[in-house]
Amino acid sequence: MRRRFALAAALPALVSLAVLGLFADRLVRRALEDELGARLVVAAGAAAVALPAERLLRLAPGDEGGRAYAAIRGRLEALSAATSTRLLVIRPDRTALADSAGRVAIGEPVPELERDRLEIALAAGGRPTPSQVMFEGSDGLLYKSGYAPLFDPSGKVVAVVGADGTARSFATYRRFRRLFALLAVAGALVGALVAAAASLSVTRPITRLTAAARRIGSGDLATPLWERRRRDEIGTLRDTLEEMRRALHARDEDREVLLAGIAHEVRNPLGALDLFAGLLAEELAGRPEAAHVDRLRSELAALEKVVGEFLDYARAGPQLREEVNLSDLAAEVVDLCGPLASGRQVAIRASGEGAVRGDREQLRRAVLNLVRNAVEAAPAGSEVEIAVQLERGAGAVEVRDRGPGLGPLARGNLFRPFFTTKEKGSGLGLALAKKVADAHGGTLVLAARPGGGTVARLELPA
Fold it and tell me: Residue 103: helix, strand or coil by DSSP?
């Protein structure tokens, strides 16, 4: 977003400066060219008036050493020094007669004049005119030409005088153009920096709001947002998010208190029922009615398990952070689930090593629920695998079974509290494991296992 703000500020400024600079460049250059062209035409006209047409017309190739040519060239040199130009006298067919620098022989064609054929033709027709094309000299400066007709005493144009020259203002113009380009780039950069700095006042709180929203979404409802310091829309958004966090936190607290209260209220009579059922079992020992008591105690044990899951779900929240050895935790879960697995003729095997930081008791309950689900889903004679992994800076526990897998209904309601496909399940096992994973900043994913079955992967920051 900061880059977009910077680009939004720099691009219009850069485009505006470029357009303005191009317009100013064209305007200034055109004015300088027109002013120089007019000066050169005046210089060429002055030279045409000062030169003797009869002597020029009598010059022939090889006369460069004669007195007439020397006199004409001397006059050209004086005029050239006075006007700061290079003067050249040519016939209408663009062959040379004389020049102030003495670089062209009489009668020789002048190739560089091909660029000004139209202007020379106009001057030969009696119309003084400047050239339309600028050219760069050997000194790196920009030059222009001006042409004027040379008349004989009868008023006939017999030659054309050309004046080549430059202006000091062109050097200033070039420096101005470079300076303007530097100023344009510097202005765009300054504008981008100012926009980037200004955008920080918007993007920084938005980034904090995004982090807070992600934290709330992951289940951390206890951490409040920062204190409000601004009175704009972002401050209002912060207040709205904080109100939502407080409402969700209060709702979760109410739900957890309700669940804990129900569990405690149910657990007390359950204990009494189990006690009396035990006494009744002793009195009916050896009688057929004892089987009904055993079934009653089995149902009480299942109900005690459900109450325990209610309590676990109600108080699931990271209470402390410590080093947790996942290998030891997996071995402990294997022991706890041993009786259940033996009764269902399912083997449990743990492998791998790794460690994470978290609440060990909560992680143990989460893995225990995953393994119990896997054992209950596994067919007799199969094996449930608990694989501990440490990779990419995260620790993971994978629980793999060879059960029937996940149906469409189960996939859509995996972590929904109280949803279950079991006849006597509470529907809180996976919900509790997911809540523990979220509270630790981790993830819980259930996927189909190649060859049949399910893989539950609990991944946690190492």
Answer: coil
